[in-house]
Amino acid sequence: MALIVHKYGGTSMGSTERIRNVAKRVAKWARAGHQMVVVPSAMSGETNRLLGLAKELSPEIASDGVLRELDMIASTGEQVSVGLLSIALQAEGLQAVSYAGWQVPIATDSSYTKARIQSIDDKRVRADLAAGKVVVITGFQGVDDKGNITTLGRGGSDTSAVAVAAAMKADECLIYTDVDGVYTTDPRIVPEARRLHTVSFEEMLEMASLGSKVLQIRSVEFAGKYRVPTRVLSSFTPWDIDLAEEAKSGTLITFEEDEKMEQAVVAGIAFNRDEAKITVAGVPDKPGIAFQILGPVAEANIDVDVIIQNVSHDGKTDFSFTVHRNDYARTVDLLKNKVLQQMGAKEVTGDNKICKVSIVGIGMRSHVGVAAKMFRCLSEEGINIQMITTSEIKTSVVIDEKYMELAVRALHKAFDLEQQPA
Amino acid sequence: MALIVHKYGGTSMGSTERIRNVAKRVAKWARAGHQMVVVPSAMSGETNRLLGLAKELSPEIASDGVLRELDMIASTGEQVSVGLLSIALQAEGLQAVSYAGWQVPIATDSSYTKARIQSIDDKRVRADLAAGKVVVITGFQGVDDKGNITTLGRGGSDTSAVAVAAAMKADECLIYTDVDGVYTTDPRIVPEARRLHTVSFEEMLEMASLGSKVLQIRSVEFAGKYRVPTRVLSSFTPWDIDLAEEAKSGTLITFEEDEKMEQAVVAGIAFNRDEAKITVAGVPDKPGIAFQILGPVAEANIDVDVIIQNVSHDGKTDFSFTVHRNDYARTVDLLKNKVLQQMGAKEVTGDNKICKVSIVGIGMRSHVGVAAKMFRCLSEEGINIQMITTSEIKTSVVIDEKYMELAVRALHKAFDLEQQPA
């Protein structure tokens, strides 16, 4: 008997018919003797519908007072889902009980619409499991120390599921999604893209953060931090397929380097066209400039991705970074109005027609020349590289967005990703 | 400066446009210097939509496990409403904050789908009011001592509003509805029906319990128990009508008998065609029969309204009562299968084509012959009376439902209700 966490996305919960199928799948696992915790998302379209109503009432959603109410409203989508799924499970003859985040409780900080989980009290859930119940917990949400409802941001249900699995030391967390696993890159761009049977936690982290969008990045961080065996698998298989077959489908995120894993140097090609780059040019090169520029950006709750500062000339340097494209105009305004004069920089420029393409692979650690091979490949395709950042297991370039597909296809081929590794 | 509670029904909250109008009306009161607490219902249609989804998954909703989930689901309708209204108030330039029942908290018992309020902790709300905020609280729901969400049953938002007003010793509770006050009877049946400027708490209690449906009965009980000045008024007046005019519109429920009130003997005619009558015939007349019959009925959570037991003949008596029409078949089954043989009664009969018509008036206390006048009036119309019950301030008869309109019209005229009292 194992303790298993299932997570189902909005598409799987999209109608009562689909919810019934989720219940049948969960029932199959429960009847096989497993203790089951299920974390469903809101029914597809529901979160957008709710936030749409809010937007009609207040196009301006920046204040903390409004953000608090948005969480109050948006969190109801998952609350409806857990109630419906619990009823469907009971109709299957199981005992089931649902909990909203505040009931577990799943404690978070108070950052409305993008809260972070701080702790999960599993006493109530554990007692229910011991009593033979399936426990259904809302994804996407928690409660702060003053009893306010918070949400974790888009895709937060993945994080909820993995965090619950971590808190309960679950044997495995199964994330049912509309893809059947993690691929070497997006098959819509490279038809030869191949599903990975396993992917290391570090690779998955890079793939997710670089825009592969299979899992929310924070869920992968949780999985890594607490070593939660997490599997991404398809929600489109029939609910009654053989359990043993289902249990080994999809892609398993692994943590042990000595585990038998595919030993390709590069595991996959990630890309992201949701970013924009911003450069503060002619910055006096003295201590503290990074903080002077990014401090106000962080205060405005704008997430920064790539950051580059190169060597200076004549005591001046250029400082570049990327933000989400939605934050582009706001960030440029902020820098022009608040930062530019104060630090005596020359100008703020930017471009929101860029994309980021990355090669990711734990094997890069021990293989020299991988980045060089990437640059040569792009050069052969005539693609100009605007920015470069590297880490131990990935190399990212920022290029003009119009070259994105070309770059991804060329790199996928250059690193032989369509071939199953030996 | 007064502390005022406003309650808005589902129709008033039916669209973002209407929610904006509610916000403007509340803002008008707040700007006049009042401390404002607002209790909105779910957007019209939302509760039915949610329960409809649940029903698709489980036509059988009797178990406690399912009822708990229904409350989990249904309570989200009001949670969305408070969030949206709070955002609309902020868009009007006010500070506003919303709370779900569990956040206040509004403590209830654990009777899912028909919970009763036990206590309301107003500390958090009071602190917000002192800080100049409008507080928006979900109607219809609370939380039990184990942290489970409960709902108060249909119309429960009225009760929530009055209970909050009672707990906070509000100066007045204004219930905005789709009628502009309490009438001598339903104007759809008697066009001459007249709006009452005031109605005594006891009369209102009888009017509501007898099916006038303006307010949920429990809200009137609360209003009476805690002497909450409660006003029923129209939500269809423009939001910007003069506040002084709005404040004295509708019908005020009064508690002091020496208050200047309309001194008609009969205040109004109530009626109800949602009931069915059941008779257990040939019951051995010995102590405990009422409990033997109604004990199992109460255990099955079936509400009983009128109860009649007349004198016995030959040691046998007939015991009659009425239940909601929806509970009719279930009650008859219960009595036939569990009660009949056990107590040696002859048979169980019933009729669900009945209605109840009542005259209600605090003036009846000191006026003899009021009931006699009612019976004469019905007799002149050729209407046979099946059951009679009386209290100090009302007399009810059960008659064939086909005579309902005729009876109501005849009684309205017989008691001169179309005339403004002197």
From TrEMBL, chains A, B:
Q: Which residues form a coiled coil?
A: none
Task: Give residue ranges for domain ACT.
Answer: 278-353, 359-422
User: Which PROSITE patterns does UniProt cross-reference here?
Assistant: ACT, ASPARTOKINASE
Enzyme Commission code(s) on record: 2.7.2.4
Q: Which keywords label this protein? A: Amino-acid biosynthesis, ATP-binding, Kinase, Lysine biosynthesis, Nucleotide-binding, Transferase
Q: Which CDD domains match?
A: AAK_AKii-LysC-BS, ACT_AK-LysC-DapG-like_2, ACT_AKii-LysC-BS-like_1
Pfam assignment, any one: ACT
One GO MF term: aspartate kinase activity
* Keyword Plastid included in the entry's annotation: no
Q: Does the UniProt entry include the keyword Repressor?
A: no
List the catalysed reactions: L-aspartate + ATP = 4-phospho-L-aspartate + ADP
Q: Pathway of this protein?
A: Amino-acid biosynthesis; L-lysine biosynthesis via DAP pathway; (S)-tetrahydrodipicolinate from L-aspartate: step 1/4; Amino-acid biosynthesis; L-threonine biosynthesis; L-threonine from L-aspartate: step 1/5; Amino-acid biosynthesis; L-methionine biosynthesis via de novo pathway; L-homoserine from L-aspartate: step 1/3
The record's annotation in InterPro entries points to: AceGlu_kinase-like_sf (IPR036393), ACT-like_dom_sf (IPR045865), ACT_Aspartokinase (IPR054352), ACT_dom (IPR002912), AKii-LysC-BS (IPR041740), Asp/Glu/Uridylate_kinase (IPR001048), Asp_kin_monofn (IPR005260), Asp_kinase (IPR001341)
Q: Which family does it belong to?
A: Belongs to the aspartokinase family.
- The molecule here is called Aspartokinase
Origin species: Piscinibacter gummiphilus
